[in-house]
Amino acid sequence: MYERFFGLREQPFSLTPDPRFLWLSETHQEGLATLVYGITRRKGFLLLTGEVGTGKTTLLRAALGQIPPQTDTALILNTVGLTPIDLLKLISAEFGIQHQLDSAADFQIALNRLLLDRLRSGRNTVLIIDEAQNLDHETLEEVRLLSNLETDTEKLMQIVLTGQPELLHKLASPNLRQLRQRIAVEHHMEPLAYEDVQPYLAHRLEVAGGRYEEVFKPGVEPTFFAFSGGCPRLISLLADRVLLSAYSKGLRPIDAAFVELKAKGMGAIRQSGMVSDIRTAD
């Protein structure tokens, strides 16, 4: 709706996990390198954690775009309430296993054959389980058993667990110590720092065909940071609302007072004086 008004080809602050819009802060750079390294070097278990909205899914999609094309991937998204056998059935469907599977042992036999065939063909296999914090201990233990599928020299399947910080607490349980010890590569996503806000906004606007200085006036960054606490999703959420409101009023470029007004209207700046404190520090 507002794209033409701001000289944009598309919406710059959509909440969909489009890797084109990924701005690589220090934590994103490290996370991307960790994922690509772990998958391509066949490290077995990988762990990616972070708060809601820090960009885990976008980062994962960016990583999958950088791994060799001889890689087969399976993605499990709906993890709420999954039992061990439910998980195995979903994995079977993702990998196209058509055999009659009456037990977990049947599944592991069929999967082992599939993975060996892929290995002989020079292919790597990656299983991604998103929102893994929703899995109970029994189901996570079933995931660990899948990591036993290996040859004498390498893992047949790379397993990527992604989730919120609750997953770290769950993996710290003594009942899951065997799984925790098998995680070879891991990364925890941190929020953006204050100095990351401007390049984050500018990158997304540039990808969408615009220019930062034609959309925002200097000084809007403190409000974005105060509103979001450095969470990329919240920065994008506020930016989208601001651009829509500014378009309706024919306002551009957008100044700090207008951004602050919208942020307060969304009820997300919880500490009075937070923005002015940041401006003073800056």
Topology:
Elements: H1 26-40, E1 45-50, H2 56-64, E2 71-76, H3 84-95, H4 104-120, E3 124-129, H5 137-146, E4 158-163, H6 166-171, H7 177-182, E5 183-189, H8 197-207, H9 212-215, H10 221-228, H11 232-249, H12 256-265, H13 274-281
Parallel strand pairs: 1-4, 1-5, 2-3, 3-4
Helix pairs in contact: 1-2, 10-11, 10-12, 10-13, 11-12
Descriptive report:
The protein is α/β, with parallel strands linked by helices. It has two domains: 164 residues, Rossmann fold, CATH 3.40.50.300; 90 residues, Orthogonal Bundle (Helicase, Ruva Protein, domain 3), CATH 1.10.8. It contains 13 helices and five strands. Helix 5 links the parallel strand 3 and strand 4. Helix 10 packs parallel to helix 12 and helix 11 crosses helix 12. The longest helix has 18 residues. It starts with 25 loop residues before the first helix and ends with a helix. The C terminus is likely disordered.
What share of the residues lie within helices?
40-55%
Work out the radius of gyration.
22 Å
Largest sheet: 5 strands, parallel
Mean pLDDT: 91
Question: Please, how many helices?
Answer: 13
Q: Going across the major beta sheet, what is the strand order?
A: 2-3-4-1-5
Q: Name the shape in a single word.
A: elongated
Structurally, the number of domains stands at: 2
What is the N-to-C order of secondary-structure elements (H for helix, E for strand)?
A: HEHEHHEHEHHEHHHHHH
Derived structural class = alpha/beta
Give me the CATH architecture of the largest domain, please: 3-Layer(aba) Sandwich
Report the uncertain regions: 268-282
**Could you please say which CATH topology of the largest domain applies here?**
Rossmann fold
Instruction: Tell me the CATH superfamily of the largest domain.
Output: P-loop containing nucleotide triphosphate hydrolases
Beta strand %? 5-15%
CATH class group of the largest domain: Alpha Beta
Question: What assembly state would you assign to the polypeptide chains in this entry?
Answer: single chain
Distance between the termini: 34 Å
